[in-house]
UniProtKB/TrEMBL annotation:
<keyword id="KW-0235">DNA replication</keyword>
<dbReference type="GO" id="GO:0006270">
    <property type="term" value="P:DNA replication initiation"/>
</dbReference>
<dbReference type="Pfam" id="PF04042">
    <property type="entry name" value="DNA_pol_E_B"/>
</dbReference>
<protein>
    <recommendedName>
        <fullName>DNA polymerase alpha subunit B</fullName>
    </recommendedName>
</protein>
<comment type="similarity">
    <text>Belongs to the DNA polymerase alpha subunit B family.</text>
</comment>
<dbReference type="InterPro" id="IPR007185">
    <property type="entry name" value="DNA_pol_a/d/e_bsu"/>
</dbReference>
<dbReference type="InterPro" id="IPR016722">
    <property type="entry name" value="DNA_pol_alpha_bsu"/>
</dbReference>
<feature type="domain" description="DNA polymerase alpha/delta/epsilon subunit B">
    <location>
        <begin position="20"/>
        <end position="143"/>
    </location>
</feature>
<dbReference type="GO" id="GO:0005658">
    <property type="term" value="C:alpha DNA polymerase:primase complex"/>
</dbReference>
<keyword id="KW-0539">Nucleus</keyword>
<dbReference type="GO" id="GO:0003677">
    <property type="term" value="F:DNA binding"/>
</dbReference>
Length: 143
């Protein structure tokens, strides 16, 4: 049984032809928390329209200099939510299934192993069918 399914059927393409994009954080440069690499990744997702995007953390890296020196303009949870909102809203037009996998270096998340999935209770209703939060480790079955 698949881990998740699309609210609308995916185009009838053989499973071996599904496009799966996998990316691993951090999604910032070492000298800025501006998420410029994340913006580049979103452009690739919108352009290539993969069926599934598996995004591994860290989304807000505990080892980033600005995090370590407490130079953020908001709380860790607020910065993380803004990061996820940017990804979800930025990829909406692509229609890709998004799978978020936590990292032990996600500063806002539980530092335990195995890691529970992220929680985002204020995720817009329209995005819930395509946004998936999984634990780390996990088994992901696509098709």
């Amino acid at each position: 049984k698949p881990l998740f399914s699309s609210p609308k059927p995916l185009p009838s393409v053989p499973a071996e032809q599904r496009m799966v994009l996998v990316a691993c954080g951090p999604y910032t440069t070492s000298d800025s928390i501006a998420y410029d690499p994340l913006a580049d990744l979103i452009e690739v997702i919108v352009r290539d329209r993969p069926d599934v995007c598996v995004l591994f953390g860290p989304f807000l890296d505990a080892k980033h200099e600005q995090v370590e020196n407490c130079q953020l303009l908001g709380s860790f949870a607020e910065v993380f939510k803004l990061c996820l909102k940017t990804i979800v809203e930025g990829t909406r037009s692509a229609g890709s299934q998004l799978v978020f996998v936590p990292s032990l270096r996600d500063v806002h998340h539980d530092y335990v192993y195995p890691q529970p999935p992220f929680l985002l209770p204020d995720l817009p209703k329209d995005d819930k069918p395509r946004v998936h939060f999984v634990s780390e480790p996990c088994t992901l079955d696509i098709d």
